[in-house]
Amino acid sequence: MLSKKTRYAIMALTKLAREKALGHEFTFIADVAESEMIPKRFLENILQELKKLGYVNSRLGKSGGYCLIVDANDITLSDVFRAFEGPIAMMPCVSEKSYQPCEFCKDEQSCKIRKTFKEIRDTSYEILKRTTIASLM
Q1: Is 82 exposed, middle or buried (0-12, 13-18, 19+ CB in 10 A)?
Q2: How far is 11 from 32, CA to CA, in rounded Å?
């Protein structure tokens, strides 16, 4: 299940992308929190993480706030998902970025459970990879 933190990160990035498209360079945290119905304290932590990841920047003062510094077409849901949730795969033996051998299989190549979950991972990844923040605006 998608965590609130990840969902709020997606919502905040989308809001900042809309504001940027409207010509607003910086947007106050309070405005994002209110319009997206995200608790302000929680949003502050999320925006700090997004800043560390290089997606947003901030500025203090009356003309300050947060702004998107990466093109919304270049931020995919797979990027955000991995940053906040970790691997997309439900099982480590089908993960591309965090692969670990399966402790339950005798033979990964013939394991039907692994095959099914690899297909789920592949399909999920394709959808997350092609969906950008810009497409959610």
Answers
A1: middle
A2: 9
pLDDT digit string (tens) for 71-105? 999 999 999 999 999 888 888 888 877 787 777 77
Q: What is the C-alpha separation between 118 and 90, in angstroms, rounded?
A: 9
CA–CA gap between residue 13 and residue 30 (Å, rounded): 14
Number of other CB atoms surrounding residue 132 within 10 Å? 19
Model pTM?
0.88
User: How many CB atoms sit inside 10 A of residue 25's CB?
Assistant: 13
Q: Which residue has the tokens 């998902």?
A: 81
Both tokens of residue 74? 């270049």
Token readout for 7 is 């969902």
In degrees, rounded to 5, the angle at the alpha carbon of residue 110 between the alpha carbons of residues 128 and 92 is 40
